[in-house]
Write a structure and sequence with these properties.
Elements: H1 3-12, H2 15-20, E1 23-26, H3 28-31, H4 34-39, H5 41-45, H6 49-54, E2 57-59, H7 64-77, E3 85-88, H8 101-106, H9 110-126, E4 131-132, H10 156-171, E5 184-190, H11 209-225, E6 230-233, E7 237-238, E8 241-242, H12 247-257, E9 263-265, H13 270-277, H14 283-293, E10 298-299, H15 303-313, H16 319-335, H17 348-354, H18 358-369, E11 373-377, E12 395-398, H19 423-431, E13 436-438, H20 451-454, H21 463-479, E14 482-488, H22 507-519, E15 523-528, H23 536-540, E16 544-547, H24 555-563, E17 629-631, E18 635-636, E19 640-641, E20 647-655, E21 661-671, E22 682-691, E23 696-703, E24 710-711, E25 717-718, E26 722-729, E27 737-742
Parallel strand pairs: 1-2, 1-10, 2-3, 3-4, 4-5, 5-6, 6-9, 12-13, 12-14, 14-15, 15-16, 19-27
Antiparallel strand pairs: 7-8, 11-16, 17-20, 18-20, 20-23, 21-22, 21-26, 24-25, 26-27
The structure holds 1-deoxynojirimycin.
């Protein structure tokens, strides 16, 4: 449809009809019979029959047959036969579930995200979905926050690359949403949601403008520059005003500064929640504030639907505000080609052949293997480590995750646990009878730190049952040379509304670890987790640790691939793993202080703790390989540059081990002195380098002015002369450095 025709259509719509384009309801309003809807969901939410007939979009409905029927029924009743938009959270896969976003971040390879989102878009499109609420690009620094599993970590540079790649994966690089199997992408949660105080979900955010701009806003901007069709508001306040009602944030920053002209949707009932934040008196005021702030769609509250008409009639808001929002929604429908083809790619046949197809599973397996991070792999006296496993060593696979298929994440709402491959299944395929198994314990026991707060005990067990599982595991561990222990967080311990005050593995698993360790010291721990954990004990009692995150549908296969050395581990931590929870929030790119404490110092008046280290247990960017790769000193081709010039930093890597390895070489830069305090160092580049045994390669990073500038509190890009330090290495603590001057 041409823009002219779209405007004509808008001009022909009644005020309430336009307002209803701004309403999003869930599928309950469309799948029950009309009577039930009127007396059930609609009554409960204060929604009229007319609103249901005209709501512009639907949340959480998929399945080709069902969505086509809903679309047909809806369009028949909608006064202008305007199609409705089908939206849903497709976060790390539709049915073929890829590793969770935090794991994808660990790959240090945005192409993984692009591929995962491309496949997710295909599978979602054939089920009739038009739009996904993804990617979540919120910067995170506090492992207590449950939603770190949905993010790609603590670094703005890395997050921005992933934001771009994910949007391009869902929408395609051209941004042409009529393309087959492409869906609209929604960057969320604008803005700063990841900085909730004390890591408690939905909590207040307080920060300085320079920090907001320099760290937090960049990844949203990257998603918008990649042409994301939608942005979602966040639940938190920004400078005291809830994001959805924050005019400065939405009109000045998002629309004007960032140039976003797509659809701005509120998070679930976030418009109504401005009342509970204490900035709106009632739903009417909430609607007024949020429409004035420029929020187009009201997700699952009736604030807009029940109040905007009256606000216009009473002269409190201009109808133009409604037109602006309704037009954007119509434009999105038009960009997706829905006026010509309201089902878009919904296709019952393709649903059967494409979803969970072999190529999709292969891609998910490949992706998962590349996200695993080897944190520890100590050698014994004869120079052998537990990993990779060797055929001649008798090995036992023990732990509650051996046969668990629940290895996606709490946001893989469209995925099916039953289609996941467990480690046990993959190991039986691979080793036949050579590997021995024991469960050891349930994922959650009667842990003090978990179930009581979750309101339910997940795995009710008697003491005898518990002891029996422990005893079987211990007996087995006595008979083998190596034990691989599969431990970690339960799915319910991460995700939305799953903030934690303790960052340890469940107590019952820690007990299993101790008991197995008492009879066999050759332990490799494979850790399932959606967040950084306190690994002091795990690290003390094991010789190897492989973090496999929430690996998704093909997790079991990918894990066995890496355990056997068919593929080497090559992930790096996208978030610091703290020494203990008291360090949170912790991130490598912290500001310098006036009292810097050298690691391990005992000096008193320094910026440190008296009862624990200042440094994390495993730093950002850290991860080992199965081989040994050496690195030469970093060399700069010059030690001065001007703002239009460039410097190349070079190192040579050599694989001196006896297997192939993939290292992730990282470039960090420190601005030694500037007009505002600068981070100790910041990631400015990285490269994945594959080396065969004995091979060497020279790698160069180009340093140009854009890697040296920063954003001030007013949003200006500032470049200041002076000294800079360049660090090149295998993680964020590298001391391989050189200096230069920007003239
Ligand atoms: C609330 C979550 O915060 C958001 O991320 C999600 O997209 C919506 N619910 C819709 O499911």
């Amino acid at each position: 449809m041409t823009q002219e025709k779209l405007l004509e259509l808008l001009g022909d719509m009644s005020l309430q009809e336009k307002i209803d384009q701004l309403l999003q309801l869930n599928e309950n309003f469309y799948t029950g019979n009309e009577q039930e809807v009127a007396t059930g969901p609609a009554r409960d939410m204060g929604i009229t029959e007319e609103d249901v007939k005209c709501a512009g979009s639907i949340l959480g409905s998929y399945g080709a047959k069902k969505t086509k029927k809903i679309q047909d029924d809806y369009m028949a009743k909608q006064p202008h036969h305007i199609p409705m938009l089908f939206m849903m959270d497709v976060i790390h896969g539709m049915k073929t579930i890829f590793p969770a976003p935090i794991a994808q971040g660990a790959a240090f390879d945005p192409n993984i995200a692009k591929m995962a989102c491309d496949i997710a878009a295909r599978e979602a499109a054939v089920t009739g979905l038009h739009c996904t609420f993804s990617p979540m690009v919120d910067l995170v620094r506090d492992a207590r926050w449950g939603r770190v599993v949905e993010s790609t970590g603590e670094d703005p540079y890395l997050n921005s690359l992933y934001a771009k790649a994910s949007v391009e994966g869902f929408q395609g690089e051209s941004g042409d949403l009529t393309e087959k199997f492409k869906i609209a992408s929604c960057v969320k949660h604008f803005a700063g949601y990841g900085a909730a105080e004390a890591g408690r979900d939905y909590n207040t955010v307080e920060m300085s403008r320079p920090a907001f701009r320099e760290y937090y806003l960049k990844s949203y901007k990257a998603g918008i520059d990649a042409k994301a069709a939608l942005v979602m508001t966040s639940f938190n306040t920004v400078e005291g005003v809830p994001a959805s009602a924050n005019k400065w944030l939405m009109r000045d920053i998002l629309r004007k500064e960032m140039g976003f002209d797509g659809v701005l949707i509120s998070d679930y009932a976030a418009i109504e929640e401005t009342i509970y934040h204490g900035v709106s008196e009632d739903k009417r005021e909430a609607a007024k504030k949020c429409i004035e702030a420029g929020v187009d769609i009201d997700m699952m509250s009736n604030c807009y639907a029940a109040n905007l008409k009256k606000l216009v009639e009473d002269g409190e808001i201009d109808e133009k505000l409604i037109d602006e929002g309704a037009l954007r929604v119509l434009e999105l429908k038009n960009k997706l080609g829905l006026f010509e083809n309201p089902y878009k790619d919904a296709d019952e046949k393709l649903e059967k052949t494409m979803i969970l197809s072999e190529p999709h599973r292969i891609a998910a397996r490949e992706a998962a293997a590349r996200t695993f991070v080897l944190l520890k792999n100590d050698k014994d006296d004869s120079g052998f480590s537990v990993l990779p496993l060797r055929e001649e060593k008798k090995t036992a696979f023990i732990g509650p995750f051996v046969d668990s298929k629940d290895i996606m994440s709490s946001w893989a709402v469209t995925g099916d646990v039953s289609s996941c491959v467990s480690v046990g299944q993959a190991a039986r395929e691979n080793f036949g009878k050579k590997v021995l198994f024991a469960k050891g314990c349930e994922i959650l026991g009667d842990d003090v730190h978990v179930p009581s707060f979750m309101g339910e005990v997940h795995y009710p067990q008697t003491e005898e049952e518990k002891e029996k599982l422990f005893a079987e595991a211990v007996e087995l561990a006595k008979t083998v040379e190596n034990v691989v222990l599969f431990l970690g967080e339960d799915t319910s311990q991460t995700g939305e509304a799953a903030s934690r005050g303790f960052l340890d593995i469940p107590e019952v698993q820690s007990e299993l670890l101790k008991r197995v360790h008492a009879v066999n010291k050759n332990i490799a721990v494979v850790l399932f987790t959606g967040r950084p954990l306190d690994l002091r004990e795990v690290s003390k009692l094991s010789r190897s640790i492989l973090v496999v995150w929430r690996p998704g549908t093909e997790g079991g296969h990918a894990i066995v691939d890496v355990l056997t050395g068919k593929r080497g581990p090559c992930g790096k931590l996208p978030m610091s793993f703290p020494y203990c929870v008291g360090q949170e929030p912790i991130h490598y790119d912290r500001l310098a202080t006036g009292r810097f404490a050298e690691p391990g110092t005992k000096e008193k008046f320094k910026s440190r703790y008296i009862d624990m280290p200042t440094e994390p247990l495993y730093p950002f960017g850290f991860g080992l390989t199965y081989t040994d790769i050496t690195m030469s000193e970093v060399k700069l081709d010059r030690n001065e540059m001007t703002k239009d010039g460039k410097i190349t930093a070079t190192v040579t890597l050599k694989n001196i081990g006896d297997v192939v390895g993939v290292e992730t070489l990282q470039l960090y830069i420190k601005d030694v002195k500037a007009s505002i305090a600068r981070p100790m160092r910041q990631l400015k580049g990285f490269e994945k380098v594959e080396l065969m045994p004995g091979n060497a390669r020279e790698i160069g990073f180009e340093i140009t002015a854009d890697k040296l500038s920063f954003v001030d509190g007013d949003g200006n890009e500032v470049l200041e002369k002076g000294d800079f330090e360049v660090y090149v290495g295998f993680d964020s603590t590298t001391e391989n450095k050189a200096s230069f001057v920007l003239k």
